[in-house]
Prior knowledge:
By secondary structure, this protein is α+β, with helices and mostly antiparallel strands. The chain is built from 3 helices and 5 strands, in the order H-E-E-E-H-E-E-H. It has helices at residues 2-13, 66-79, 126-153, and strands spanning 19-22, 38-40, 48-56, 84-90, 102-109. It starts with a helix and ends with a helix.
Amino acid sequence: MKSILFLSVFFICSCNPRVYRVNYTTQSKDYWDCGVPVKKNMALVDTLVKVGDVKLGDCGSKKQNEEQSIAVLKNEGCALDADVVNITKENSKEEWATCYQCEAEFYVKKKPESPTYLPPKKKMTGAQKWELTSSILIGTSLIVFLMTHTAIFE
C-alpha cells in the first residue's frame, strides 16, 4: 500500500513546472506557435500594456532546463496574444531547485489610435474559417443571382 502511494505521489509530482497565473486564465487548447519573443529584464516603454504575470515554480522530481521553461512561457504568451514576454526574475542557480524557475510578465503593444487596451482577436479555428468562407460564398452567389434576374425583368 505504501509503495502504491509513493508511486502515485511520484508520478503526480514529476510533471511540467507549476504555472501560477496572475490576472489571466488560459487552457492548453489556446496554445499555438506565434513566435512571441522572450526577453530578460527588458526596459519597458509607454507603448506596451501588461496583460498578465506568470510564475514557473518547482516541477517536482523532474529536471527541466531553461529552454523547456521558455517554451512554456511562449505557449502562455501566445495564448494571451502577447507581443513580448519579459522575464523579471530567475532562480536557475538554486541548488535545491529541480528545474529552471522564473517570473515573467506578458505585454501587448498599444494601438496608436487607441489610448486603452483592446483585447486582441483570437486565432480562428478551422471550423470558424470554413463558416466564414461559406457565408461569403453564399452571400456573393445571392448577389450575383439577384443582379442577373433583376436585369432580365427590367
